[in-house]
Amino acid sequence: MSATKIVTLDELRANKTREKFYILVHGKVYDVTKFMDEHPGGDEVILAEGGQDATEAFEDVGHSDEARALLPAMLVGDFEQDSTIKLKSGAAAAQASRVAGAVESGSNLMYFLPLGLLGGYFAWRYYTTGSA
């Protein structure tokens, strides 16, 4: 039984070009260079996860058993355990940013739209019932 290669953070980040592309999923590093053109979601989905933890993006999509069966053939090694840097998925960071922006920009609308509709309803009721 051979020792599993340990991939460092620097090595993971250095291998994010089309010539050699590594992703990190569940603490294991995979070389997906040859698979990028075949990926059903397109290569841009994989490219967005270069140099960072792609676990959340991988699981959010809900990959099939067939997709998971392809991973062992692409395994480079385990990610270094002593890395104190928390890696965040690019897709997860982008989604969190969009959600935060939507909540901030929509917060005023969440209050004033229902109040405006309620006020419009009472005005309509007042003028259509003939109350004066």
Overall shape: it is elongated
Helical region count? 5
What is the radius of gyration computed over CA atoms, rounded to a whole number of angstroms?
Answer: 25 Å
Span of the ends, CA to CA: 91 Å
- Spatial order of the strands in the main sheet? 1-5-4-3-2
Q: Approximately how much beta-strand content do the residues carry?
A: 5-15%
Give the low-pLDDT segments: none
Could you tell me the mean pLDDT? 78
H and E string: EHEEEHHHEH
Helix content: 40-55%
DSSP strand tally: 5
Largest pleated sheet: 5 strands, mixed
- Give the helix/strand class: alpha+beta
Give me some keywords for this one.
single chain; 132 residues; alpha+beta; 5-stranded mixed beta sheet; 5 helices; 51% helix
Q: What does this 3D model show about the protein?
A:
- This protein has 132 residues and is of the alpha+beta class.
- The protein contains five helices and five strands.
- A five-stranded mixed β-sheet has the order 1-5-4-3-2.
- A hairpin with a 2-residue loop joins strand 2 and strand 3.
- The longest helix has 39 residues, at 90-128.
- It is elongated and about 80 Å long.
- It starts with 5 loop residues before the first strand and ends with a helix.
- The model has no long low-confidence stretch (mean pLDDT 78).
